[in-house]
Design brief:
alpha+beta; Aminopeptidase; Cathepsin B, Chain A; 7-stranded mixed beta sheet; 12 helices; Peptidase C39 family protein; DUF3335
């Protein structure tokens, strides 16, 4: 239901085809289609136009280009043209009608005053991104629920009718293989155990080097590395298989020595008191862990969101009705995907349950990190050893 301050907006929704835009859009874009609308093949992200028609229905007064990653619970406004505020209100109503948790707005052309008037809060800009990343300098978010808008911020919690949402720093992995290390570092920065200014490429590569199974980070090795870096934090590894993982794509002679490294990680986990829980970690348990202020580093396949079955680490740090809020350290620029998509990303419970069952063995791997212990000193930075 719309909030009391909102007036229902009449709108039309049509697919966006970059080679054949509808005539009313062409009349709105008198100076030509924005280059970024055509630069990326957004077809995997269901691009569509949400438009506000004139009273006679013959033309449009406003339109927004809208996309979203598959199997998620949000919509993203790439740009709005014409009567911008009317276009954005139409997108919000469209998202509510689909029962989604959130609308985001890339800041290519968005004016801060328009975003604020539409109930959007500014996102903190990314601390780092991959060299091939393409995204706006700014972005905005609006959570959808009956009540006030949640306004996330560093180091604090914004209360809303569904609970709490807080914004971690966004750091895009700078290599193809450091997602596990980045996810752990963002988790620690979000918990206050790592200064935000210490979240940089040196920290990224240092923690990756301690956790890697060459080049991936498997759950036990990552959990042990987190415990070594932050010894005052409680760490539990969840892995419902006792065989080596993330090796099926490698030839036999490559698997053997990596399997030995994973066995060594299990020995180190036992030595340092990092439990390895062999039970399947259910989605309900993930939501419960977040409710206890724990952070969950979760191994997922990118098949559902990006179209290729590659294991990838994300941080689960918040919950809203029906969805878990994650941080994804990677965005696929070739599909128009940006840090605005990857940051504060709500994924519906059933979709997250499916994408976090990995490989033919159907195992689930995760690392849970408890909240900082009272009066327990935490390291002021990432491990001191440089890569």
């Amino acid at each position: 239901m719309p909030s009391p301050q909102e007036t229902p907006v009449k709108s039309v929704v049509v697919p966006f085809e970059r080679e054949n835009p509808p005539a009313p859009l062409g009349r709105l874009l008198r100076h030509g289609m924005p280059e970024r609308w055509q630069a990326a093949d957004r077809s995997a992200h269901a691009p569509h136009l949400v438009a506000v028609p004139t009273d006679d229905g013959e033309d449009w007064t406003a339109a927004a280009l809208v996309t979203a990653r598959p199997h998620t619970a949000y919509l993203k406004i790439v740009d709005a043209v014409g009567d911008v505020r009317a276009a954005v209100a139409a997108v919000v109503a469209h998202a509510r009608g689909r029962g989604l948790a959130q609308v985001k707005w890339e800041g290519w052309t968005a004016r801060p005053e328009d975003a604020a008037a539409a109930g959007f809060a500014a996102l903190r800009p990314p601390l780092a991104q991959a060299e091939d990343a393409a995204g706006p300098a700014t972005g905005y978010v609006r959570w959808l629920h009956d009540g006030a808008v949640a306004e996330p911020s560093y180091g604090s919690v914004a209360e809303s009718s569904y609970g709490s949402v807080a914004e971690p720093p966004y750091y895009g992995q700078t290599t193809h293989f450091t997602c596990g290390a980045v996810t752990a570092l963002v988790a620690r920065a979000h918990a206050g155990a790592l200064p935000v200014e210490a979240l940089d490429r040196r920290a990224e590569l240092t923690l990756w080097r301690d956790a890697t199974n060459h080049p991936a980070c498997e759950p036990v090795g990552l959990g042990v590395a987190v415990r070594r870096a932050w010894p005052s934090s409680s760490v539990t590894v969840h892995l419902d298989t006792d065989r080596p993982v993330l090796l099926d794509h490698l030839p036999e002679n490559e698997r053997e020595w990596r399997a030995l490294l994973q066995d060594t990680s299990r020995t180190e986990a036992d030595r340092t008191g990092v439990p390895v829980d062999p039970r399947h970690l259910a989605l309900a348990a993930i939501r419960s862990a977040i409710g206890r202020r724990e952070q969950v580093l979760l191994l997922v396949s990118l098949d559902g969101m990006q179209g290729f079955d590659v294991p990838h680490w994300v941080l689960c740090h918040g919950v809203v009705p029906g969805a878990v809020v994650i941080e994804d350290p990677w965005a696929n620029a070739s599909t128009g995907d940006t840090w605005v998509d990857a940051h504060l990303l709500p994924v519906a419970d059933p979709a997250l349950d499916t994408m976090s069952v990995i490989s033919a063995d159907r195992f689930r791997g995760a690392v849970t990190i408890g909240p900082p212990r009272p009066h327990d000193p935490s390291p002021a930075s990432a491990p001191a050893e440089a890569p």
